[in-house]
Each structure stands twice: as structure tokens, then as C-alpha cells.
UniProtKB/TrEMBL annotation:
Entry keywords, A to Z: Acyltransferase, Membrane, Transferase, Transmembrane, Transmembrane helix
Organism: Pongo abelii (Sumatran orangutan)
Membrane topology value: Multi-pass membrane protein
Gene giving rise to this polypeptide: ZDHHC2
A single GO cellular-component term on record: membrane
Similarity section: Belongs to the DHHC palmitoyltransferase family.
Protein name: Palmitoyltransferase
Molecular-function GO terms, alphabetical: protein-cysteine S-palmitoyltransferase activity
Reactions mediated catalytically: L-cysteinyl-[protein] + hexadecanoyl-CoA = S-hexadecanoyl-L-cysteinyl-[protein] + CoA
Source domain of life: Eukaryota
Length: 359
């Protein structure tokens, strides 16, 4: 990595400041919405005390969950690959002396032989990050904004000034969910006063303009958030990231768009965890460590002879695909061993041929 001069260092600092502008915008907008709804609408414009109490209680609950999940999405650091995926000094030196080609790949294959690596590049090579000088774990990608490799990277979100990945994807989903509920609740309870504004049923005070703009803002954000939240719900149900939806992961046997899908319920549990009491709270409960994931390889290796479906074929497939025998962490192993593991409605049991192991 080339050393950076004072000029490039200053530019990086300026970019870091600029990256916070979307977050500041959302924060200011949220602050104004609180003032417009809680003060101008509920306290100033609502005449029914019961309506005031109910609306304020429900509003503050949604507001608190919105802010909590947004905060966690912003300030939860993305997880990076563990030390075992970094090359040793001897391997780095050997890699630098080898030109790009088969010899270069042979060094990486030897370094990766004991790692739970199942995905490859489009050309079938080991996925290696020159910038971070490490072998990329499955579903890991390098973020050009953060300048780091991020575990199970989904995308870099400017609205949270953070990478959305394994460590904060659940928080991001809850942020979308609670922000959508927040906007829908405001639009629904503000609607009757918005109508009164156009029928001259409101007193001529500054509250009427807050009520009008509040409804417009809530309605617009509801439309955009509903489509974004729906899209990410679909991704979770299929156990895909945004990057994987645009480019399917490549395994040793070829491209497989459903390679990480274990069925709807298990895909949900991989993101939200086993304990449902934590599902709606922005508390980390995702399964695993982000470095490796259970897989269900739907497409078979064309060179592999067909075998009867079932768990008895697993050992043979592991040998044919040369997957390292690494045990799954306990938090994910039960996804593959419980009685319903091979009977999910969205997976054909006869096609599940191999599973990945977690460090």
C-alpha cells in the first residue's frame, strides 16, 4: 500500500466530514418532525385530551424505537475478517515474488486450505483482497468508502454513513421498519388535520403550516421506505445480500443464486436469532460469527456422479468439493441438524447436497 502524503490525508478528512451530511439531514428532519407532531399537532391543535394522550404515547414509542435502531445502525462498527484470514509475513513475501497466474493462486490455495472458504471469483480463483492483504471469507467484500473488507457486506449506506453488513444488518432492517411505521403513523393521525387545512377548518396559526408539511413529508417517505423495506424483507427470505442479488455467489461447482438459502424460517433465524423476544429490539442476536455460513448447494458439480438425496451423500460431496471439515459454531449448527432442516417448503430436499462449516 503506497504511503499517503499530507494532501491525501486532508482530502480523506474532508470526505469524512462530507459523509456525515446525510446523517445530519435525517437528524434535523427527525427533530423538526418531533416538534411539528408532538407540540404543534398534539398539544396545540388537538382539542380532545384522550386523543392527545393516545397519540403522544404511541408516537413516543415509535420515536424511541426509530432513534434507537438508527443509532445502532450508525455506530455499530462493521466486522472485519479475523486474523486467520490474513496472510502471514512469509506468505505475503512469497505472494509478492510470484507474478499473477497459477503460481500466485497456488500460494493462496495453500494459505486457504484450512479455512472455511467455499466461494470463488468468476474465474474460479481464491477471493483475495490486495488492499487488505487477506483471503476473503464467504460473503465478504471490500468497501471502497470504508477502505476495509466487511463481513457479509450488504451495501454502504450514505444515510447512516456506515457499511451495512453482518454486525448491523438486523439493526438496519429494524431502522427501516420503525421509520416506515413512524411515517405511516404520522400520516394517518395527521390526515384529518391536513384535510381541515384545505377546508379552512384550522385556526390561522403557524401550526397549520407544520401540519401541512408534516403530512407531505410523512407520505413521501412512507412510499420510498415501503419499497426499500419490502425489498430487504425479500432478501432476508432468500438469504441474500444486496450484492448477491445483483451478482450470484460463485462456488467451486459454479454460480448458485440460492447457495446460502436454507429455507424461509432458517433464513429469518440467521438474521434475527433463535429468541423471538429479541427480534423487534435493536440488540444483536444474529447467528454465527460472520466468517462462514451454512450452505445448501442446489446445483451439483457436473463431474460428480448422481447420488441418492439425503445426509449420507454429504461426506462424498465434501470430498468431491474439497471443502475443509470445520465444525459449525453451535449457534448455527442446529440450523442443519434439527428435524425440519431438509423439509423447508422453499427448498427441495432432494437437492440439498452440502453444508458449510463455521469457524
Amino acid at each position: 500500500m503506497a504511503p499517503s502524503g499530507p494532501g491525501s490525508s486532508a482530502r480523506r478528512r474532508c470526505r469524512r466530514v462530507l459523509y456525515w451530511i446525510p446523517v445530519v439531514f435525517i437528524t434535523l428532519l427527525l427533530g423538526w418532525s418531533y416538534y411539528a407532531y408532538a407540540i404543534q399537532l398534539c398539544i396545540v391543535s388537538m382539542e380532545n385530551t384522550g386523543e392527545q394522550v393516545v397519540c403522544l404515547m404511541a408516537y413516543h414509542l415509535l420515536f424511541a424505537m426509530f432513534v434507537w435502531s438508527y443509532w445502532k445502525t450508525i455506530f455499530t462498527l462493521p466486522m472485519n475478517p479475523s486474523k486467520e484470514f490474513h496472510l502471514s509475513y512469509a506468505e505475503k513475501d512469497l505472494l509478492e515474488r510470484e507474478s499473477r497466474g497459477e503460481a500466485h493462486q497456488e500460494v493462496l490455495r495453500r494459505a486457504a486450505k484450512d479455512l472455511p472458504i467455499y466461494t470463488r471469483t468468476m474465474s474460479g480463483a481464491i477471493r483475495y483482497c490486495d488492499r487488505c492483504q487477506l483471503i476473503k471469507p464467504d460473503r465478504c467484500h471490500h468497501c471502497s468508502v470504508c477502505d476495509k473488507c466487511i463481513l457479509k457486506m450488504d451495501h454502504h449506506c450514505p444515510w447512516v454513513n456506515n457499511c451495512v453488513g453482518f454486525s448491523n444488518y438486523k439493526f438496519f432492517l429494524l431502522f427501516l421498519a420503525y421509520s416506515l411505521l413512524y411515517c405511516l403513523f404520522i400520516a394517518a393521525t395527521d390526515l384529518q388535520y391536513f384535510i381541515k387545512f384545505w377546508t379552512n377548518g384550522l385556526p390561522d396559526t403557524q401550526a397549520k403550516f407544520h401540519i401541512m408539511f408534516l403530512f407531505f413529508a410523512a407520505a413521501m417517505f412512507s412510499v420510498s421506505l415501503s419499497s426499500l423495506f419490502g425489498y430487504h424483507c425479500w432478501l432476508v427470505s432468500k438469504n441474500k445480500s444486496t450484492l448477491e442479488a445483483f451478482r450470484s455467489p460463485v462456488f467451486r461447482h459454479g454460480t448458485d443464486k440460492n447457495g446460502f438459502s436454507l429455507g424461509f424460517s432458517k433464513n429469518m433465524r440467521q438474521v434475527f436469532g433463535d429468541e423471538k423476544k429479541y427480534w423487534l429490539l435493536p440488540i444483536f442476536s444474529s447467528l454465527g460469527d460472520g466468517c462462514s455460513f451454512p450452505t445448501c448447494l442446489v446445483n451439483q458439480d457436473p463431474e460428480q456422479a448422481s447420488t441418492p438425496a439425503g445426509l449420507n451423500s454429504t461426506a462424498k460431496n465434501l470430498e468431491n468439493h474439497q471443502f475443509p471439515a470445520k465444525p459449525l459454531r453451535e449457534s448455527q449448527s442446529h440450523l442443519l441438524t434439527d428435524s425440519q432442516s431438509w423439509t423447508e417448503s422453499s427448498i427441495n430436499p432432494g437437492k440439498c447436497k452440502a453444508v458449510g462449516w463455521m469457524k
